[in-house]
Structures are given as structure tokens and as C-alpha cells.
Design a protein that fits this description.
Length: about 130
């Protein structure tokens, strides 16, 4: 397991999201497609990093998602990731979630909305032109 000060950076592909987790700045970014066949296996080192980070988070943690598409197993893991941050929000860190979605992709906007209704952390929604 990596200490929270480390940076975990994974380059995105057509099947895997680009991920940048920076423990020093408290900035966590997820973007692109997430279609791994073994979502649990792919996200395991990410969850390990997050579990370590939550032990000693920065004063402010910002999590941004700029997803193009993700499959159902990835959706479940994104939910688990967000739920983990509920435990530190307002206790150890102010957590903010930024959900970017293409202005013409209502499904991605609704996906973020669904998460925001089930996660007790403020969401900010930002649309962008592709």
C-alpha cells in the first residue's frame, strides 16, 4: 500500500479511465471510459490508495469525474469510492465532488445526479462542450 502523500497516476485507454490521485494536493481525478472486464481487480490498487488517504486526508479533498462512459461494475465501484469519502467529509476534510458532463449527454448528467442523491457530500455539476 502507498502512503497518502504519493501520487497514483494511471494513463487512460479506450477501456480504462485515466486516474490521477494526488495525496499532497488532495486532488483526485477520474476521466474517460471505464469498461474493464474485471472492475474489482482494476480498481483494487485505487481503493487501497483511497483507504490510505482517508487515514490522513488534506484539509480539502476535491474529487472530479469527467467520464465519457462506464459499465455497471465500474458504476458500483464509483459509488463505493464516493461512500468512503462520506466518512471523512466535515470531520477530517471538506470533500467536494465535481461532476463534469458533456452538455449534450443527459445520461451522464443524470448518472451524477443519482450519485448526489445517495452521497452526503456536496456535488458541483459542470457541463462542457465536446
Amino acid at each position: 500500500m502507498q502512503p497518502p502523500m504519493d501520487v497514483l497516476s494511471l494513463k487512460g485507454t479506450s477501456q480504462y479511465p485515466e486516474i490521477l490521485l494526488d495525496g499532497q494536493s488532495g486532488q483526485l481525478h477520474f476521466s474517460g471510459n471505464s469498461l474493464p472486464e474485471d472492475a474489482r481487480g482494476f480498481f483494487e490498487p485505487i481503493m487501497d490508495w483511497i483507504n490510505n488517504y482517508i487515514e490522513a486526508p488534506r484539509e480539502v479533498t476535491t474529487i472530479s469525474f469527467r467520464m465519457i462512459y462506464y459499465n455497471t461494475p465500474s458504476s458500483k465501484i464509483i459509488f463505493q469510492i464516493l461512500k468512503r469519502f462520506e466518512t471523512i467529509h466535515n470531520k477530517l476534510s471538506r470533500v467536494k465532488i465535481i461532476w463534469y458532463y458533456p452538455d449534450d449527454d443527459i445520461d451522464m448528467k443524470y448518472a451524477g445526479s443519482d450519485y448526489s442523491e445517495n452521497i452526503k457530500i456536496p456535488f458541483e455539476f459542470i457541463d462542457y462542450k465536446e
